[in-house]
What we know:
Blueprint: E1 2-7, H1 15-30, E2 34-39, H2 45-56, H3 62-86, E3 91-94, H4 96-99, E4 101-103, E5 112-115, H5 118-125, E6 129-133, E7 136-138, E8 144-146, H6 152-163, E9 167-172, E10 190-191, E11 193-195, H7 196-204, H8 212-221, E12 225-229, E13 237-240, E14 252-267, H9 272-281, E15 287-294, E16 297-305, H10 309-318, H11 320-323, E17 326-340, H12 348-360, E18 367-371, E19 374-380, H13 384-397, E20 405-406
Parallel strand pairs: 1-2, 1-9, 2-6, 3-6, 9-12, 11-13
Antiparallel strand pairs: 4-5, 7-8, 10-20, 12-13, 14-16, 14-17, 15-16, 17-19, 18-19
Helix pairs in contact: 1-3, 2-3, 6-8, 7-8, 12-13
Amino acid sequence: MLIVQKYGGTSVADAEKIFSAANKIADDHHKNHAMVIVLSAQGNTTDLLLEKAGEISKRPSKRELDALLATGEQQSAALMAMALKEQGLPAISLNARQAGIFSTSEHGCAKIVSINPERIKAELNNRNIVVITGFQGVDIYGEITTLGRGASDTTAIALAAALSADLCEIYTDVEGIFTADPRIVKNAHKYKEIDYDEILELSGMGASVLHSRSVELAKKFDIEFSVKSSGEMASSTQIKKVDSIEKKLVSGITADRNICKVSIMNVRPGCIPMIMRRLSLKGISVDIITHDIADKSERLSFAIAERDAERTIEVLGEHQGECFFKLLSTKDRLAKLSVIGIGIAYDTAIAAIFYETLMKEGVKLHLLSLSGSKISALIAQDEVSGVINSLHRRFEEEGMLAPQVLKGGEDA
């Protein structure tokens, strides 16, 4: 059996945890399984590297930043290979170039284009445990690229697809996928299994367990995989195609913190598409858009990540004269609260509970959007934890939490 395992940064944060992970890998290797291991950078290494870059330059070159950040995963991979060899096991570490992981050229947010697995297969044929750097690739010019924060998950799923792996496991610091962050909601329930579409919505709306592009790849190539804790023997969550009758239930409640709201007014008609395109060209994602038309001018409000606020203001400033608009306001320290579930926006009972809970808590709505699978609201950061707990409690009382969960995260 060929197994691909991914270990997150907290799972390899120090020497003790590296050896603990190495013991798990060794157990599977001794069962005569072929092993491919994908690693994230240790602990908060990526943040520390970003801080070092900030000490040198306020706006470092994206190319050089990728060259710097890629060293975090290379460190993890080399240390893991050393730990395995200390146990007398054959192991070799490979970076993205050596592993044949080819990407697009967008530094900081590249996407995997293809994988040439010949080197990996050769090492597996030699009975080596192959330890590969996550989060990175190499473009057609030979340049190192990174795939975005949390993208080691995507590396693992892509390798599982390219190698036709029999099993793919994502080890992290949580026991699986929950209906809400268990660090916020103490009685959050853990899924035994969850459909690709539902976990994709949860990941895209702020649930930080999985990189959203990893789920997209898994769905595309029909890769079933599990999410489990690297520190405990608790049951895992299986991500797969789940066939069930049509339902309108809540899959989960998430929050994406560090959001900024931008409002502009007096926009000349026809200019909004150009503004959106300019923001897109700068790699700025826009969400929860509201658009009003009055007196031959238009008003636009939208949400962006706080880290993109400065670049957004610059882009708007460059085209302010051309479109004759006025920047009305920017507001930071907001969070995007989302209730996720296929079809829930069409269930007025779920929408009613959402509104009732926010009104009861005295929460101000800065922006609101509904789609077939989610209700999202922009609220103050410091109100998020209380609102998530209240919503989770109400949906549980009404029997609206999705099935296939383990009560309170208990084992099956």
